């Protein structure tokens, strides 16, 4: 039999050799992944440590990345403002996008990640190597934050929250249109939209405004201060009214934004015939929406979807990729299929904020 | 197809039965023939597209997607059709979406070999929701929480006709049910039921809880642990129905064939004799058969089924539902005497002096096929649904044991993102833990979240989808019975284990031993 041998796209040899290869790369000598964060050895600094550290570089303000109790913190001014709002008096050193500093022979600079207000990727340069830690990121347009900027690097340390090929986030305009038409069909009731208090809530509000919805938007008390913080950082959100304590009649035809945790509790029972909506990338999967008693799933995510994750890898083509959290197995598999060297870190304590 | 996809999604996200009925009724009213008839058939479970089986969908996926990425996605989503619908690249740009009848016509007119190609072309013309609806339509099994009865109720509501009238003519008609719609819209007379056997709603029971009844007024029967079933026969044809009114004749053809009397009876489908793997295995086998349109001779031989009769609704054409239970019982005994004893017997009445005596009998009954006791008012007519004060179910108290969680696995369906299936063990004499069972129910949603977090934070090893956890969490497990098992290393097997409490207060070393479980053998 005459046959042409075609090498399979899957590279089992590469998988076996992976550990050995990684041990030879330089980055391994000065950056150590630990279960509770990424340690930059020569600078004696931790990135997004999940326990108190003497020196912490913080990518963004979500609680699973920005913890309290660190000695010194470096973050963007917006992230520091968010941390100050959440944890009280903590101070830190502001680093603007595109700017940096040197510490212990490591050049450290912050670059926009497009995830939420103030979110940053961190570029580390040392021993002739460039390593980018993405933190959480997305590549879609978002009126509430500076768009992601690709940063060329040798090693990319990436998230993979939505790292499964079933996750492709639809255009946000479609989801906002779904929300607005559900409101029109239910003018005697209201729509309660579950959205994480930092980032998602403000993005949904800003997108509603962009779609021409200029009526007051009602918010849960837990998001008032964060909305004010966004407004103070030049993210106009229009007229916002606290929903707490209002009579049912006043909320007829209203859109009410609340943290997911408030959706099924007594607070929501005071609303007039509410339709339960949820703005989250997980809403792409029907049973996930059903689990949470969601009647109107809105697939809106502040994370990169599968295509954004993989396109970013193809665009940057780092010589190696470390995957911090999320579906590290699936994105790792994709890297194998595309001859990209990858390694799963499985950091702990990275709760998904969409789960609220 | 878009309207049908929207209906399917609406049904998935709507919990209220009334709202589901309204969604279906609205769709049936505004959608033209024959689309709405195909949709009704899909909801009622009477649509069968012979050219597409779920294997075809898996094959389609394997051809296009990396098998590992597909498996990971499938594990996460918990449903093959939805996984394929979500992973499928969006090509729907310019093409017009097909109608429901176009889909049915194309799939019905192709061969099994060509079906994947036809299906793929249709997939390319749809968006993600349309693709999901297409795959569900093509394979049957919509999984939207709709029984045949509910679909017919919605039809009744859409056109202002009684659901019993729909039920009566239903089996004389075939999808896409254009005669049914013509009658519903008042354009024609009601179609001829043509001597067809049809479903009557079951009478159901309330739990007795802590109450008691007087045995002068109530009769006691065993509550058998099989599948409740209704048999309706006109002589010309015999049909079997499950509790929701879904027809299951094809799943149990030996029962239909053996039923040589005219009438409608209510009973429990059971497996006869000792079955390898115990009663739980036979119950699982019954459950699996329930979902099938056809069964093999081997399946029929492996688990010999019979029906234990509880009640009679019609004797011949005579409607007995208005008569008291005592009168129906007499008629049932006569009726059963003429049936094949291999396939049919009578559910015995329990002779007890008084309620306390009955409680003793119930407590002593550990036969695995007994779920508890039924209490029926002697003068109760046979009424549809659950009526207060007429029938009670009095389930047996479960046994409990404290076990230690050993392994966890993700659930399927709506729990696919949680570690919700737990394997637990008890201690041997020499201080080892051996698995004694697996449970995936009994906890609240909040407890599930807690358990899921426990699993994630205490994983010590992973074996594919299974996580081994730190042996530190004690689960109080309730079960109906425990018996000897050669298939398990521990030598014991529980029947219907479920988690009754999380014992976060209890150290793992104080959990029960296997010998303590052996002491609970029947």
SSE blueprint and pairings:
The complex is a heterodimer of chains A (about 350) and B (about 525).
Chain A: H1 12-24, H2 27-30, E1 31-34, E2 37-40, E3 45-47, E4 55-57, E5 72-75, H3 77-87, E6 93-94, E7 100-103, E8 106-112, E9 120-126, E10 129-133, E11 155-160, H4 172-184, E12 190-194, H5 200-210, E13 217-219, H6 224-232, E14 240-242, E15 255-258, H7 266-269, E16 274-279, H8 286-291, E17 296-298, H9 306-316, E18 320-326, H10 328-337, E19 342-344
Parallel strand pairs in A: 3-4, 4-5, 5-6, 10-11, 11-18, 12-15, 12-16, 13-14, 13-15, 16-17, 18-19
Antiparallel strand pairs in A: 1-2, 2-3, 7-8, 8-9, 9-10
Chain B: H1 2-13, H2 17-30, H3 35-44, H4 54-64, H5 67-77, H6 80-87, H7 100-108, H8 115-123, H9 128-139, H10 148-159, H11 163-170, H12 178-184, E1 203-204, E2 206-207, E3 218-224, E4 227-233, E5 238-241, H13 253-258, E6 263-271, H14 278-290, H15 297-302, E7 305-315, E8 318-319, H16 325-337, E9 344-346, H17 355-364, E10 370-377, E11 385-386, E12 391-395, E13 399-410, E14 419-427, E15 433-439, H18 445-457, E16 459-463, E17 466-469, E18 474-479, E19 481-484, E20 492-495, E21 498-503, H19 514-518
Helix pairs in contact in B: 1-2, 1-9, 2-10, 4-8, 5-6, 6-9
């Amino acid at each position: 039999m005459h046959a042409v041998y075609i090498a399979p796209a899957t590279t089992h040899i590469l998988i076996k050799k992976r550990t050995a290869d990684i041990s030879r790369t330089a980055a391994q000598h000065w950056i150590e992944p630990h279960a509770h964060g990424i340690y930059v050895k020569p600078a004696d600094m931790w990135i997004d440590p999940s326990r108190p550290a003497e020196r912490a570089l913080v990518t963004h303000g979500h609680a699973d990345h920005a913890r309290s109790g660190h000695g010194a913190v470096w973050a963007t001014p917006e992230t520091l403002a968010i941390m100050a709002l959440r944890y009280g008096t903590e101070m830190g050193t502001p680093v603007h996008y595109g700017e940096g500093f040197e510490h212990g022979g490591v050049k450290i600079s912050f670059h926009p990640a497009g995830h939420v207000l103030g979110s940053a990727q961190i570029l580390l340069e040392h021993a002739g190597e460039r390593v980018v830690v993405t933190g959480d990121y997305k590549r879609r347009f978002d009126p509430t934050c500076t768009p992601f900027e690709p940063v060329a690097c040798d090693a990319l340390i990436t998230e993979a929250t939505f790292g499964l090929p079933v996750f492709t986030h639809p255009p946000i305009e479609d989801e906002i249109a779904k929300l607005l038409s559900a409101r029109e069909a239910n003018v005697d009731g209201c729509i309660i939209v579950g959205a994480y208090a930092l980032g998602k809530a403000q993005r949904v509000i800003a997108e509603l405004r962009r779609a021409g919805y200029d009526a007051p938007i009602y918010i849960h008390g837990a998001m008032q201060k964060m909305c004010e913080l966004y407004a103070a950082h030049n993210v106009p959100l229009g007229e916002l009214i606290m929903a707490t304590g209002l009579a049912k009649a006043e909320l007829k035809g209203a859109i009410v934004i609340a943290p997911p945790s408030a959706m099924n509790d007594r607070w929501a029972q005071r609303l007039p015939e509410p339709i339960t909506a949820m703005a989250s990338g997980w809403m792409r999967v029907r049973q996930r929406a059903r689990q949470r008693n969601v009647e109107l799933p809105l697939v809106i995510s502040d994370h990169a979807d599968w295509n954004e994750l993989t396109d970013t890898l193809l665009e940057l083509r780092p010589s190696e990729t470390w995957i911090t959290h999320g579906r590290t197995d699936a994105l790792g598999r994709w890297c194998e299929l595309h001859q990209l060297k990858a390694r799963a870190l499985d950091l702990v304590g990275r709760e998904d904020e969409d789960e609220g | 197809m878009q309207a049908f996809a929207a209906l399917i999604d609406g049904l998935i996200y709507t919990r209220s039965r009334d709202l589901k009925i309204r969604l279906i009724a609205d769709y049936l009213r505004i959608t033209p023939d024959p689309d709405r008839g195909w949709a009704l058939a899909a909801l009622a479970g009477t649509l069968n597209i012979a050219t597409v089986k779920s294997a075809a969908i898996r094959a389609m996926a394997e051809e296009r997607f990396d098998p590992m990425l597909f498996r990971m996605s499938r594990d996460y989503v918990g449903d093959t059709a939805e996984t394929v619908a979500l992973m499928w690249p969006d090509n729907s740009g310019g093409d017009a979406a097909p109608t429901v009848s176009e889909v049915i016509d194309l799939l019905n007119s192709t061969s099994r070999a060509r079906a994947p190609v036809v299906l793929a072309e249709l997939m390319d013309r749809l968006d993600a929701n349309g693709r999901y609806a297409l795959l569900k339509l093509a394979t049957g099994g919509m999984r939207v929480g709709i029984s045949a009865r509910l679909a017919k109720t919605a039809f009744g509501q859409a056109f202002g006709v009684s659901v019993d009238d729909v039920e009566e003519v239903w089996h004389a008609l075939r999808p896409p049910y254009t005669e049914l719609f013509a009658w519903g819209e008042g354009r024609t007379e009601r179609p001829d039921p043509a001597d067809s056997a049809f479903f009557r709603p079951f009478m159901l029971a309330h739990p007795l809880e802590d109450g008691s009844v007087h045995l002068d007024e109530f009769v006691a029967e065993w509550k058998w642990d099989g599948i409740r079933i209704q048999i309706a026969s006109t002589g010309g044809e015999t049909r079997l129905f499950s509790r929701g009114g879904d027809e299951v004749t094809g799943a149990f053809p030996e029962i239909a064939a053996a039923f040589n009397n005219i009438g409608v009876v209510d009973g429990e489908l059971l497996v006869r004799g000792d079955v390898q793997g115990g009663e739980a295995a036979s119950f699982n086998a019954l459950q699996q058969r329930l979902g099938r349109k056809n069964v093999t001779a081997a399946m029929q031989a492996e688990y010999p089924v019979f029906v234990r009769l509880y009640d009679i609704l019609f004797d011949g054409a005579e409607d007995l539902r208005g008569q008291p239970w005592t009168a129906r019982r007499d008629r049932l005994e006569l009726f059963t005497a003429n049936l094949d004893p291999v396939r049919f017997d009578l559910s015995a009445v329990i002779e007890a002096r008084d309620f306390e005596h009955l409680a003793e009998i119930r407590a002593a009954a550990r036969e695995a096929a007994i779920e508890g006791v039924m209490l029926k008012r002697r003068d109760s007519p046979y009424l549809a649904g659950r009526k207060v004060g007429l029938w009670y179910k009095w389930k047996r108290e479960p046994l409990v044991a404290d076990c230690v969680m050993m392994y966890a696995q993700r659930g399927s369906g709506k729990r696919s993102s949680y570690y919700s299936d737990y394997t637990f063990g008890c201690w041997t004499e020499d201080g080892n833990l051996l698995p004694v069972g697996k449970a995936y129910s009994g906890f609240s949603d909040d407890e599930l979240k807690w358990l899921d977090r426990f699993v994630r934070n205490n994983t010590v090893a992973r074996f594919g989808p299974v996580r081994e956890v730190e042996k530190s969490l004690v689960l109080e497990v309730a079960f109906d019975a425990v018996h000897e098992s050669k298939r398990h290393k521990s030598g014991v097997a529980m029947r219907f284990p479920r988690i009754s409490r999380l014992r976060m207060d209890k150290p793992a070393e104080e959990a029960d031993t296997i010998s303590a479980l052996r002491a609970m053998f029947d």
